[in-house]
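STRUCTURE:
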């Protein structure tokens, strides 16, 4: 009699127990008992669905249904072939309203910590337990991908991606000799790892700086240099604050060197218009193209361009105790020296920190009596420092670098001016002053990783050499 009552109680309460176990977080019904849903590989996740998504919207109210009933119902609603593992049994309870049929089945499986394996060719879905899905992943889902590291070291990239890999089932091989990585993991993780590897090994965005250096001979109508106000129309020019370091104390007050101006031209025609623009401003003045250097620079790295001469001189160092003298040759740079530090903002604008030095050497300075202690070249220089923010491919104009050179020419009566002793009676020296203005155009261009290979090889190699220094 007691056994009969016990069987009756179990008949009424077992469905309730199964239903409660199925919706409790972190539990899966398996053989009527609650089992851990983490499994051997806790970082392994269900692969994204191919078949099991979308479908016609349905509404369901399922109470204490067997897995066989669930399969039969969703086969009719989705048109999929569905099989369930014999290790899944118990009852299921679910309520959905206006949900795509395939999404509804996927949600029921997820709530009950069950997994699915798809076979798109057969239009087949297999419903399995966590353990069965892990076994399937090890034998079927693991893929191999080889990464060739062109920039950086394979060992460093391996350290970056190792925490992203699926623990327990993934593998990582590091080939330091050939600078390669071989990764074994599920496709979903391989896709994320590929993005990280690309970010680590892609060439950084760089800046190609084109420079055009001109020298303009000024006449009396251009006492203060070229007048850039002819370009002063809306949205064409922008004045930028500049620091001017004069050549000497006299230059600071000289009207021949009134200061410097940087003009950023946003809307001027791009490419091949520099000399035409200069002729528009200079008019009939004599224009001489000094050089058109180009340099590829990495962000926040200093790049230098020197156009001019290197004057050699002898340097002698005397040792204090022994009196031994060691001589070596040094070189003094004169001409035009450009130092640029580019950077790219988050919004894609280019910032250039510019320093320009214009220098000459009028001669040598002697030390000691009649140069007994040696001599070194004298250097006169004007330096400009500024920071300008521009758009990609804008034209930046640096002007106002004016210098005056004195030259003497012997004039007189032919033949008589060449006779010794009396030549001074028939000749004289004429002083000529030549005033010139140096104008430098900068055109910065962003070079993205995708377009890096289009840059001429010699500029790429120079930039990579600077980046390692």
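SEQUENCE:
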């Amino acid at each position: 009699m007691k056994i009969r009552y016990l069987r009756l109680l179990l008949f009424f309460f077992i469905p309730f127990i199964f239903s409660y176990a199925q919706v409790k977080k972190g539990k899966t019904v398996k053989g009527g008992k609650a089992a851990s849903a983490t499994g051997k590989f806790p970082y392994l996740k269900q692969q994204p669905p191919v078949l099991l998504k979308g479908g016609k919207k349905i509404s369901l109210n399922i109470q204490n249904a067997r897995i066989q009933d669930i399969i039969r119902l969703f086969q009719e609603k989705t048109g999929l072939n569905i099989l369930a593992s014999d290790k899944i049994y118990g009852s299921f309870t679910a309520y959905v309203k206006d949900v795509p049929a395939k999404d509804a089945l996927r949600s029921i499986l997820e709530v009950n910590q069950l997994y699915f394996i798809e076979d798109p060719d057969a239009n087949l879905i297999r419903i399995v337990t966590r353990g069965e899905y892990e076994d399937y992943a090890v034998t079927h889902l693991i893929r191999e991908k080889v990464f060739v590291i062109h920039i950086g070291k394979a060992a460093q990239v391996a350290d970056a991606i190792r925490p992203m890999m699926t623990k327990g089932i993934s593998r990582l091989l590091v080939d330091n000799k050939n600078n390669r990585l071989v990764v074994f993991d599920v496709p979903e993780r391989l896709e994320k790892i590929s993005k990280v590897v690309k970010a680590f090994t892609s060439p950084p965005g760089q800046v190609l700086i084109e420079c055009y250096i001109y020298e303009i001979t000024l006449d009396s109508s251009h006492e203060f240099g070229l007048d850039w106000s002819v370009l002063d129309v809306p949205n064409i020019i922008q004045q930028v604050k500049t620091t001017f370091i004069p050549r000497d104390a006299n230059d600071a007050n000289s009207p021949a060197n009134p200061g410097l101006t940087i003009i950023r031209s946003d809307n001027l025609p791009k490419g091949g218009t520099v000399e035409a623009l200069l002729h528009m401003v200079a008019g009939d003045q004599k224009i001489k193209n000094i050089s058109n250097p180009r340099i590829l620079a990495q962000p926040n790295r200093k790049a230098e361009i020197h156009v001019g001469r290197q004057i050699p001189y002898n340097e002698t160092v005397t040792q204090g105790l022994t009196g031994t003298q060691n001589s070596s040759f040094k070189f003094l740079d004169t001409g035009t020296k450009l130092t640029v530090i580019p950077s790219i903002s988050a919004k894609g604008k280019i910032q250039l920190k510019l320093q320009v030095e214009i220098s000459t050497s009028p001669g040598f300075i002697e030390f000691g009596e009649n140069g007994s202690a040696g001599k070194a070249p004298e250097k006169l220089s004007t330096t400009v420092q500024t920071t300008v923010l521009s758009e990609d491919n804008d034209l930046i104009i640096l002007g106002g670098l004016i210098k005056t050179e004195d030259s003497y020419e012997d004039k007189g009566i032919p033949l008589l001016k060449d006779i010794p002793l009396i030549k001074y009676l028939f000749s004289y020296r004429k002083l000529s002053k030549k005033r010139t203005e140096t104008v430098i155009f900068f055109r910065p261009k962003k070079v993205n990783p995708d377009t890096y290979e289009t840059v001429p090889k010699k500029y790429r190699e120079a930039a990579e050499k600077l980046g390692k220094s």
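REMARK: The two ends are 93 Å apart (CA to CA).
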